[in-house]
């Protein structure tokens, strides 16, 4: 069975000593092959909105994530646990795969909550991303305003294709 994201969002939060930065995107795309337990999610980096200022958004895209050079972020891999998507319920699962951001792939295991209700599969996950793991450098002048560890929340509803 193939499932595709019908609606999905990614929110990130940088909680630094001098500034809290939050932004989100509703442009998460993805597909999940339940039989093979394989998944692939992707998004356009420049689709994040909600920064504290337009200048902050510009710096995010131009200086840090370099979204012209690295326009997409993705997570592809397999679900470790077995689950029965024909039964309504909530499953705690681990997704193992490659998280690619800023042109750098990192193998990650990310805990997710997967819930099934009336043939809709919903995924929720909270995890952190270390900027250093993806070669995203922070100039010393702003290191009090930008956290080196970014909190990420992903939510997606998927329907059978």
Strand order of the largest sheet: 1-3-4-5-6-7-8-9
**Shape, per Cα inertia axes:** elongated
The stretches of 5 or more residues where confidence is low (pLDDT under 50) are none
- Alpha-carbon distance between the two ends: 8 Å
Residue fraction in strands:
over 45%
In the CATH hierarchy, the architecture is Beta Barrel
Provide an overview of this structure.
- The protein has 161 residues and is mostly beta strands.
- It has one domain: Lipid/polyisoprenoid-binding, YceI-like (Lipocalin).
- The chain is 7% helix and 56% strand.
- It contains 1 helix and 9 strands.
- The protein has an 8-stranded antiparallel beta barrel.
- Strand 6 (89-101) and strand 7 form a beta hairpin.
- It is elongated and about 50 Å long.
- The mean pLDDT is 95.
Sum up the structure in keywords.
161 residues, Lipocalin, mainly beta, 7% helix
Topology:
Elements: E1 2-15, E2 20-25, E3 29-33, E4 38-44, H1 54-64, E5 72-79, E6 89-101, E7 104-117, E8 120-130, E9 149-160
Antiparallel strand pairs: 1-2, 1-3, 1-9, 3-4, 4-5, 5-6, 6-7, 7-8, 8-9
Provide a short characterization of the protein structure.
The chain is mainly β and about 160 residues long. It has a single domain, classed as Lipocalin, CATH 2.40.128.110. It has 1 helix and 9 strands; from the N terminus they run ββββαβββββ.
């Amino acid at each position: 069975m193939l499932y595709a994201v019908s609606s999905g969002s990614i929110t990130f939060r940088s909680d630094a000593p001098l500034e809290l930065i939050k932004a989100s995107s509703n442009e998460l795309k993805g597909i999940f092959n339940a039989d093979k337990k394989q998944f692939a999610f992707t998004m356009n980096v420049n689709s994040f909105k909600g920064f504290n200022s337009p200048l902050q958004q510009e710096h995010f895209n131009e200086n840090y994530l370099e979204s012209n050079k690295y326009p997409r972020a993705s997570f592809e891999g397999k679900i470790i646990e077995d689950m029965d998507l024909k039964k309504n319920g909530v499953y705690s699962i681990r997704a193992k795969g490659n998280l690619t951001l800023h042109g750098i792939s990192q193998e990650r295991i990310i805990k997710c909550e997967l819930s099934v209700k009336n043939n809709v599969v919903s995924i929720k996950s909270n995890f952190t991303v270390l900027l250093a793991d993806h070669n995203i450098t922070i100039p010393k002048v702003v290191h009090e305003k930008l956290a080196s560890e970014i909190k990420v929340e992903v939510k997606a509803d998927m329907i059978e294709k």
